[in-house]
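Support request from a user on the community tier.

User writes: "When I paste my structure tokens into the form, the page sometimes reloads and wipes my input. The last time it worked, I copied everything first. Here is what I submitted, just in case something in the input itself triggers the reload:"
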């Protein structure tokens, strides 16, 4: 059994397996204050968001999921709330730090 949060795995993974997460990104900002504004606005709209610093940017995220289908469902809700430029990022564990935009 494994559990993941923001692409970091806890628990036991069989040798050779990598934890992969699908993160729904509402927006990515170079200035933390801008991320905080969007985060507050998204929460007022009923989205469960948080700010996650990544590579010098401040990402407003609406969740991290083991399954891409789950992330796609949340992405639809995020876009429906007006964040039409939201997207999904596929992240691997520390063994595989690949970062890939899904859509």
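"...and here is what came back when it finally went through:"
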């Amino acid at each position: 059994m494994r559990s993941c949060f923001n692409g970091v795995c806890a628990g036991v993974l069989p040798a050779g397996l990598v934890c992969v997460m699908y993160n729904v990104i509402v927006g990515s900002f170079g200035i933390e204050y801008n991320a905080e504004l969007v985060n507050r606005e998204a929460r007022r709209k009923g989205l469960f968001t948080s700010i996650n610093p990544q590579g010098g940017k401040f990402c407003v995220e609406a969740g991290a999921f083991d399954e891409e289908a789950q992330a796609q469902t949340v992405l639809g809700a995020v876009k429906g709330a007006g964040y039409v430029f939201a997207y999904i990022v596929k992240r691997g564990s520390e063994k595989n730090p690949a970062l890939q935009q899904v859509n």
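Agent notes: The reload is a front-end session timeout and is unrelated to the input. Confidence is low (pLDDT under 50) at residues 1-8, 94-100. Residues 36 and 77 are 20 Å apart (CA to CA). Escalated to web team.
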